[in-house]
Amino acid sequence: MPETEGRAPRADATRNRDQLLAVATRMFASADAEPSMRAIAREAGVGIATLYRHFPTRESLVDAVYRDQVARLTTGARELLDRLPPAAAMRRWMDLFGAWIATKNGMLDTLLAMIESGEIAHAQTRTELLAAITTVLDAGRVAGDLRNDVTADDIAASLIGIFTVAPRPAHEAKAGRLLNLLMDGLRPPPG
Question: Is 174 helix (H, G, I), strand (E, B) or coil?
């Protein structure tokens, strides 16, 4: 029975949707190729009909995972700043970015087709991510623990480079070392 428009979804429906998103995200991140919808449903412990009720197409699932990950990155910047000094928040945010990049592994073909068709606005995502980086950079500048001459574009380009040569999860240690080197370069010189 479909949910009545305007009415909140049932708790079990919300739980199922959240579980499907979490499992799909994890499977996309660890897969070399796109996992089947059946495999995602099975891993989430729900029937295929439940998956299709929430996500009628592969594209709708990829879109939901992609948007969820972008939202986690953008809100994550502010949440990290609430808990950590800006330099530490930036380093943790870089890990979130790496996880976001890794999630694309198992949904790349679908994601690229959706970007090409205009279903996903790549430029909007870039704007949101640069704003998140800027939020942390600005806080770091005020606190004096991040350089004044670095831009969000500089950091984004560096992160893309790092995760291109050290993709996660296969090269976790190498990515971590490179991220730490990047952070060293983001700190203002002493004195």
Answer: helix
C-beta separation of 96 from 73 below 8 A: yes
**Where do the structural domains in the chain lie, given as residue ranges?**
58-186
Arch. (CATH architecture) of 58-186: Orthogonal Bundle (1.10)
Provide long-range contacts, Cβ within 8 A and 24+ apart, for 34-41: 34/58, 34/106, 34/107, 34/108, 34/109, 34/110, 35/106, 37/61
- Can you tell me the mean pLDDT for 165-188? 90
Task: Give the predicted TM-score (pTM) of the model.
Answer: 0.80
DSSP assignment string, 117-170: HTSS-HHHHHHHHHHHHHHHHHHHHHHTSS-SS--HHHHHHHHHHHHHHS-TTT
